[in-house]
Amino acid sequence: AAGTGEKGSVTLAKTAILVTGVAGFIGFHVASALLARGETVVGIDIVNDYYDPELKHARLNQINDHPAFRFVKMDVAEAEAVKDLVLEAGITRIIHLAAQAGVRYSIENPFAYQRSNLQGHLSILEACRAVEGFEHLVYASSSSVYGDRPLAGDGFSEDDRVNEPVSLYAATKRSGELMSTTYSHLYGIPQSGLRFFTVYGPWGRPDMAYFSFSEKIMKGEAIEVYGEGHMHRDFTYIDDIVEGIIGVLDHPPAGGKNEIYNIGAHQPVGLMEMISTLETALGREANKIMRPMQPGDVTTTYADVSKLKAVTGYAPSTPLKDGLERFATWFKGYKGLN
Ligand code: NAD
Fold first, then answer.
1. From start to end of the chain, where are the E strands?
2. 169 catalytic, yes or no?
3. What value does the CA radius of gyration of the chain take, rounded to a whole number of Å?
4. Is Magnesium included in the keywords of this UniProt record (predicted)?
C-alpha cells in the first residue's frame, strides 16, 4: 500500500484521494469511510437530475463539514478541468465512480452514456497520465458486462468471455475497462476495475428496484415485477462494497497493470424472494403486477469473488435480510414515515 505515517492500525498516505461521483450512492459511502480512517478526500460530482438531486445534496450534507473533505462541482468529462484539479490537489490515487448509471435509461438517452462513461473515463485516464508517480486508479465497472447468461456453475468469472453486452450502459462500462487496459499498457498506470453486482443499502438509488418498490409499497401502489419475477440478482450490501473498494485501493497491481475484479455477494437471490424479504423489512405487503423482461435487462447476475478474496481478503458478510432491514429503517426515517 502507498503511504507513510501510522494512525492506529491504518497506514495513512500523504496525499488526498479523489472520489468522483461523490454525491452518488456508492461515492458518498466510500468518501465517508475514507474520511473515517483519516484520509483527505477531494470529491467531484455534476449532481445531475437522473434521480432526485435532493437526495444527492442530502448525502453531501452528511460529509460537507468534515475538515478533511473538499467538494468541487465538476463534470468528469471536462478533461482539462479534471486534470488541473488533480495536479493542483496533489492527487496520486483516484476512485472513479462518476457515471451515467442505469440499464433501461440507456435505451432512451444513449448520449448521456457517451459523455459521462466514455469521455468521462478517458478524461480520468488522461489526468492519471499527467501525474508523476501516480499510484492507483480504482474505477467502477459493472456485472452487466457479462451479458445475458443463465444461472449456472459457481458464478461469473473475470476470465469469462465478455463480448456481448445487451445494453449501451454495459457497452460503455466494458469500453472503460478496455480503455484502461490500453492506458496501463502504454503508460504503466496501476489500475483496478471493479465489476459491481447490484449494490443496495441506506442512501441508495431511487431508480433501483428495491428502492422504487419500497416507495410504492409504502404508498399502497402496485409494483411492476419485470421478467415475470424469474430474474436473479447477486444483491450486495453497501458496507461490503465499501470494504472491498478500500481493500482494493490499498492493493495496487504490480507493474502498472489493469486488474479486473468482480465485487458481489456470491449469493444470487430470486426477485420474488427479494420482494418478500423487503415486505417483511417494511412491514407491508406488496401488490404485484407481473411484467415481461425489459429490453437491455439480463436474467441473472452471480459473482465469483475468489480473485478479489485472494488479493484483499474480501469477505462479504451481510445477508439480504439484514441489509434490507437496515435499508428499510433508513428509508422510513428519510421519508419521515416513522
Ligand atoms: P449514482 O448514480 O448514485 O452515482 C453516480 C454519480 O455520478 C451521481 O451522483 C451523478 O451525479 C454523477 N455523475 C454522472 N455523470 C457525471 C459527470 N459527467 N461528471 C461528474 N459526475 C457525474 O450511482 P452509484 O450506484 O453510486 O454508482 C457508482 C458507480 O458504480 C457507477 O460508475 C455505476 O455505473 C457503477 N455501478 C453501480 C452499481 C449499483 O448497483 N449501484 C452496479 C454496477 C455498477
1. 6-7, 10-11, 17-20, 41-45, 69-73, 93-96, 136-142, 191-196, 199-200, 223-225, 232-233, 236-237, 258-263, 269-270, 288-290
2. yes
3. 19
4. no
Write out the DSSP string of 189-203: --EEEEEE--EE-TT
For the chain, give every domain's residue range. Answer: 6-197+238-264+303-316
Say which of 139, 146, 169, 261 is annotated catalytic.
Answer: 169
For residues 121 and 138, the answer to whether their CB atoms sit within 8 Å is no
- The pTM (predicted TM-score) of the whole model is 0.96
From the CA of 50, how far away is ligand 1's center (Å)?
Answer: 10
Ligand 1: nearest atom to the Cα of 23: 9
- State which fold the 6-197+238-264+303-316 domain adopts: Rossmann fold (3.40.50)
Atom of ligand 1 nearest to the CA of 207: 2
How is residue 288 written as a grid cell?
404485484
How many angstroms does the Cα of residue 9 sit away from the middle of ligand 1?
31
- Its ipTM equals 0.99
